[in-house]
Structure formats: C-alpha cells, structure tokens
Amino acid sequence: MENKSIWEDTVSHNSFPKLENDISTDVLVVGGGITGILCAHELKIRGYNVLVVEQDKIARGITKNTTAFITVHHETLYQDVAKKYGLGYAYDYLNLNLMAISEFKKLSYKYDFDYKECSSCMYTSIHEEKILNEKRVLNILGYETELVNQLPLEEFSIKLGIKHKNQGELNPLKLINALSKELIIFEKTQIVKLEKNIAYTEKNKITFKNVIIATHYPFINRYGLYFLKLRQKISYMVSINHKEIEGTYCNIDNGLYFRSYKDNLIVGGYDRDTKEPCKRLFLKNISSLFDFNLINYSWSNQDIMTLDGIPYIGKYSRLRKNWFVATGFNMWGFTWAMASSIIIADMIDGGDEIKLLSPKRSIWHKQLFINISTAIANMLRLNKHRCTHMKVALKYNKIDNTWECPAHGSRFDNYFNVINDPAKQKHIREK
Fold first, then answer.
1. What 8-state DSSP symbol labels residue 2?
2. Which residues contact 59 (CB under 8 A, 6 or more apart)?
C-alpha cells in the first residue's frame, strides 16, 4: 500500500473543533504531534491550564510515520558526545533518555498503546571499532550492555553489535489517541503570528503566559536562527508480512533499521538529505532481501537534524524568555519527545535550562557552513517554483512526484499543497 503507514489502520482518530473565539491559557502548545501532546499531558498533570493548537489534524504529520523505537542508544553518539563535550555531558544524555523510557513505561500502566519492553541493538557489518568504542564509553558511564554477533533475521549481515536490555516499542497513534482525550485541543487552527504573550490565528487571538513550539521544524525565523541550524533527512519504510521478532535494530553503516509490530516486520532506512532522495535504492535493497509481494505498507518520513547531533530543547530565543522549543531529534523522535515534555515542564516550573540541549549553544560546526551554502545556492538558482518558507528554489523529485526544498526540507505535492514543514502554505510561483 503506497504512501500509508502501518499505524494509520490501527486506530480511529479523535476529532477536535476549530478555534472560533478569543481565549487565554497558562501554556499554549503549538503542534499536535507526539511532542506537543506529551508536553500538554505533562503540564496538565502538574496543574497548568494548557491548550494545544494544530494547523491540520493531530498526529497526521511526522508522528503517524514514525517507527516508534524507544531507546537510549542513538547510533554511536555517546563516544561523540564524550569527545566533543566530555563524559559529564554523555552521562546527562544517557540519564535523560533513561528517564524517557521510564516515563513511557509508567504511561503503559494507565493507557493501552501496545507498549512492549524489549532489547535494542546497534550493529555494524564494517565498523567493529565504533561498536567497541561505544561499549567502552558506556562502561565508563556505568551502563550495562552486551556485545552480540547474531541478528534474529538472517537477511541482514552483522559483524558486531551492542545490545541494550529494557528498552521499548509502541504504537504511536494509539498513544496519541489515549492522551488526547484528556486535553483541550483545537484542530484546523493555524498560528499566523506570534508575539510575546499573544498568538494570532486568522480570526482569533490566544493570550498565554508560556508557549511551546512543537511543530517539528520551528516556524518563527526571526528568532533563534533555526533555519541555519537545522536540516532535514528523509527515510523510506515498508511493512512486510513476517513472523514476530524480539527487539529493535539499527545498522550504523547504512542506517537500516527494523522492528516487529504483531505479524509485521517494519524496515526503514537509507536516510539522506531531502535534496537527495533514495527511494529506488532502498526498495531495490528490500526486494533483494524479502519477497516484494509481502509488502503491505510503504511510506516515508522526515527527521530534523542539528549541527552536532544533539536536540535543541529549551528557550526558543534569548529575546523570548517565555517561548520554548523542542526540535532536532535526529531520527530518535519518540525518546526525545518524552524527555522534552519533562525538561520543558521543569523549566516552566522555574527550573534551569539543560546546557547540553540549549538552543543557545555554539553553532560553529562544519555543518553550519554546508547549510548556509546550500541555502544561498538554491536561493540564487533560477526556478519559477519557490518554497514559501524562505523562497528557495524547489526541485522536482520524479520518484515521489513531489516538489522539494533542498535547503530546509519543505515538500509539496503536484498541486503544491504542503506535505512537510517548515513551509506553511502553497508554494510561490515567481514571475
């Protein structure tokens, strides 16, 4: 089934009204994906008056296309964090993700969202030393792992892997449906202007004490320089009729990952910048491993990548102390979505920003200059079809039949309706 994720047929979506009048709240959450819903849920528990606004329908964007791995191990990032920032920050990174896993487990006692505790494995067919280095760092941090040299699927080759126990997996839309029933949510309600304490829709205004921007890609350009600090990667996924396997798995060489959901095997990967689609390569690889006729769902998703591989969670800008942001989860969205909900709620309660995750941290990385050169080159490129985000020339993707922004990752269908942000409206056609 083309362009439809496996999760979409597992639930009947809740519906919510459009905002039709002016309103005030303690906390406004902009974005009805998993990050926004978890933030609203956590703040509601803490006694805040919270409302969520979503420009379309909740969980119809990135969330419905996720694979929903819940794991502390994000490829081989611990050795990178330890090298760049020190073991203290690597320890913080680990504990934040352990906290997230614990919170998902607590939720599973109250709500049914097919949560399953399982192992998580990062493996390689080439770079054995990376796995060994990762284990050394985790040993120093006091976190127990196991080296493995076998996978549950003979179709995938392995040289060495590092396995973590007590991780998790879930059904993302069942979780959204369960939590959203208890929240105040307005759908089809787009924020068109944001001031210090007021958000404007086309017809109404929302007065707030604090606002959380949980829109996958931050949509306010004049603060925070997120359009320089972020890029998007696209990956392709399929669901295949297959016997159930235990655990979640990710190949650090090519980004290929897989897990089970009931009698389906979900396989994804070959992540590339949006300007470099790789669907044919992915499907060619899958068809060489499995019977193509067993594929029952096929879809794609986009992930926000930061300059250093670490999310931006905290104050949106130095100039907006009551604005908060959670973005740049670098392909590990569900673990960081949960961590974000606790971190931002603590900050609204008066706690400090976590330095490792601060959006204000240094931007001087090699990737910054790549992002800048890509944006400038495509702004200057002659093309009548321009993205509404920052007027970058669009490129046509013949494989997916989409128009795509090579700088910031916006995607449009053939009628120029927005598929993926940061664009919020139909494309600009220059004269």
1. B
2. 13, 32, 33, 34, 37, 172, 173, 176, 177, 180
pTM score, whole prediction: 0.94
- Which uninterrupted H or E stretch holds 107? helix 87-110
CA 299 to chain centre: 15
Round to whole Å and give the CA distance between 192 and 217. 15
CATH of the domain at 399: 2.102.10.10
Tell me, yes or no, whether 252 and 134 share the same domain: yes
For residues 294 and 391, membership in a common domain is answered with no
State how far the Cα of 419 lies from the Cα of 412, in Å rounded to an integer: 5
Domain stops at, among 305, 325, 347: 305
- 388: which DSSP letter? T
| Dist CA 93 CA 336 (whole Å) | 10
Q: Please tell me whether residues 210 and 271 are part of one structural domain.
A: no
Same structural domain, 17 and 39: yes
Number of domains observed in the structure of the chain? 3
Alpha-carbon distance of 58 to 9, in angstroms, equals 15
Kindly list the distances between the CA atom of residue 295 and the CA atoms of 1, 3, 197, 255, 300, in Å, as whole numbers in the listed order. Answer: 8, 12, 49, 20, 14
Range of the domain at 151: 113-169+229-305
- pLDDT, one tens digit per residue, over 15-62 is 999 999 999 999 999 999 999 999 999 999 999 999 999 999 999 889
Beta-strand relationship, 116-124 and 69-70: unpaired
